[in-house]
Amino acid sequence: MTTRTLATRTAAGPLGTAAVAAPPGTVPAAATLALARAVAIEARKLVNTRAGVALVVAGALLSGVFAGGSALFPTPETGFAQLASMAAMPVAMIVMAMSALLAAGEFSAGTAPVTLTLDPRRGRVVAAKALVVLTLAIVATLLAFAAAALTMLVAPALTGVPLSWGNSLLRLGVLLGNAVHLALAGFALALALRNAPAPIAFLLVWPTVAMLISRISAGAAAVMSFVSIDPFYNLMPDVTGAGLPGLVVSVLFWLVLPGAIGILRLLRDDL
User: Fold this and answer.
1) Sign (positive/negative) of CA torsion 158, 160, 161, 165?
2) Domain range summary for the chain, segments of one domain joined by +
3) How many CB atoms neighbour CB 75 within 10 A?
4) What is the pTM (predicted TM-score) of this model?
């Protein structure tokens, strides 16, 4: 064996490939591909079950029903912003449920050890799931907006009542932000509890509970505005709320705190 051959094998990795260190501050291509593969796997899990397919179909149907119902029985205030809100509401709820199932479904089914054996980097698994949830929330909400826009074009021909497009950009941004926040809240709570039904039920009833508590006093209403499940409404100019501080506190309360607990449990516990 020559000195050159020995040096080549010494510089090679375990499979004979050169182990060249990546420059500081860069992400190795293999790591990027592995994350992309993990994201694709987690995305496929959303529709690989009957429940996932049923939720997707239900979301599409309910979005059309809610927006179409509002457009067929219009009021003077009916416009694109209202139709988009009606179309996005059921979609946001269903995306939240799918997010919770993605986070905790494997723990309930007992398949989490298999997933973490195939990909032992637990942090990457969580990151892939979170990216899928984020993408799902954005895409589903944009599709709901598209359904509302289609309703705006079709409904006046059926009712004879023109509908106003108005200046809806800020309202659409608020709806999108709230949908993403709700989806990530369901994901974070399910990851922390390793249970999907409890976070889903809790987040569905929380708006009613928060409304009842807010009616106790002005102080209670002020406190509840800091733990809102749809905190982006605080940024609307015509809404009296906690504003940007309320948004920050709500994100910390619903996303960061349970998400950190869930990630720490996953990284430290034996499955």
Assistant:
1) positive
2) 31-268
3) 9
4) 0.82
